[in-house]
Amino acid sequence: MQRMIFINLPVENLPNAKAFYEAIGFINEPRFTDETAAAMQWSDTIAVMLLTHEKWKSFTTRPIPGRDASEVMLCVNCESREEVDRLTDTAGVHGGTADVNPAQDHGFMMNRTFADPDGHVWEAMWMDPAVAGADAHISEAHA
């Protein structure tokens, strides 16, 4: 079986969170969605589980961080610089906040960040395929 990652996120308003993630390109998996949770697929190996606060509390007694807290920054790769811009800008238009951290551009790699409506921070990142290859070295690819 291929390794997968499932990211669990507490959300205040499940329908709004689900609509936000659909707007930025996640696909709902209805087999694992109900009134307390929504499974949102980014790829065959990455899924985000949006959980109501009540559902979240059934898994842990730890407090849910506030919107201004920085619990984690989740990073997804994009196929181009344009996709990074499109993803970040779309997030800002659909209830999230674009550019919660300064954009970075290193030539061979660039990223922008956004927060979803609940304050969870995502980084949209593009890296030059010549650098991303296992045998490539940054200094060789951009010498």
Tell me the layout of helices and strands.
Layout: E1 5-11, H1 14-23, E2 27-29, E3 37-41, E4 46-52, H2 53-57, E5 73-77, H3 81-93, E6 97-98, E7 104-105, E8 109-115, E9 121-127, H4 129-132, H5 138-141
Parallel strand pairs: 1-4, 5-9
Antiparallel strand pairs: 2-3, 3-4, 6-8, 7-8, 8-9
Q: What does this 3D model show about the protein?
A:
This protein has 143 residues and is of the alpha+beta class. It has two domains: 1-62, Roll (2,3-Dihydroxybiphenyl 1,2-Dioxygenase, domain 1); 65-143, 2,3-Dihydroxybiphenyl 1,2-Dioxygenase, domain 1. Helices cover 25% and strands 31% of the residues. The protein contains five helices and nine strands. Strands 5, 6, 7, 8 and 9 form a five-stranded mixed beta sheet that branches. A four-stranded mixed beta sheet has the order 1-4-3-2. The longest helix is centred in the middle third of the chain and has 13 residues, at 81-93.
Order of helices and strands: EHEEEHEHEEEEHH
Distance between the termini: 40 Å
According to DSSP, the number of beta strands is 9
> Radius of gyration in whole Å, from Cα?
16 Å
Q: What is the average of the pLDDT values?
A: 91
CATH topology of the largest domain: 2,3-Dihydroxybiphenyl 1,2-Dioxygenase, domain 1
Q: What would the keywords be for this entry?
A:
single chain, 143 residues, alpha+beta, 2,3-Dihydroxybiphenyl 1,2-Dioxygenase, domain 1, 2 domains, five-stranded mixed beta sheet, four-stranded mixed beta sheet, 5 helices, 9 strands, 25% helix, 31% strand, globular, disordered C terminus
